[in-house]
Amino acid sequence: MRKIIICFCILFTTLSLKAQMISGISIDGGNIPILVYIGGNQMCLPSTSCFIANLRPDYYTVEVYATRRTRPGERVWKGERLYTERIYFNGNGVKYIQVRGMGGHRPDRPDQGAHCPEYGQYDRVMSSQLFDTFFNKMKNEPFSSDRLKMLEAALVNTDFTCGQCLRLVKLYSFDDDKMEIMKLMYPRIVDREAFFTVIDVLTFSSNKDEMNEFVKNYSICR
């Protein structure tokens, strides 16, 4: 019996030591399914958390994107980027990262969508890659009327974020043109609580007041 107890203690100690040796980077998305990339390589299937084990000491570029859970055979959807950072991992212990600006880790740069609406609102949002293509087509279109037609067609089946709206608004120089785009896009913006960042690009305070009134009246009507 004594030998059994001794063997059990040795086994328990060995397992405890092995557990302590586990090291890597742990990424927590809260209740949001995420995709994690390190050095441009996808590390996990869609999940609310991802653990990359036993990394050697080095600098790593970590990118985290919003996604949704997929069924077998369904293509993985890569949505808005929630986090990007080049970090140093010393090879020991576990480095924890919480996305969406929690836990002291900075989110992506503000001009690329630092504000992140709730995951459930992302189903119809134009992906970052597709939006870049759409933005360039809008930018290269010489006639404002044709730009407007392109945007109206996109809005039929697509939602946008404030960050995307802001980039489109900045294609225009005059407040009247900017306001036309804002009013057209606002009903299809998923993170309206951040729309003040779009309104802020207007030059004149009277136009800002008009847009704030538009937002207020739209909310009341809804």
Automatic annotation (TrEMBL):
InterPro entries to which the protein is assigned, alphabetical: DUF4476
A Pfam family per the record: DUF4476
Domain of life from the UniProt record: Bacteria
Signal sequence bounds: 1-19
Keywords: Signal
Ranges where the DUF4476 domain occurs: 125-214
Protein name stated in the entry: DUF4476 domain-containing protein
Annotated source species: Bacteroides faecalis
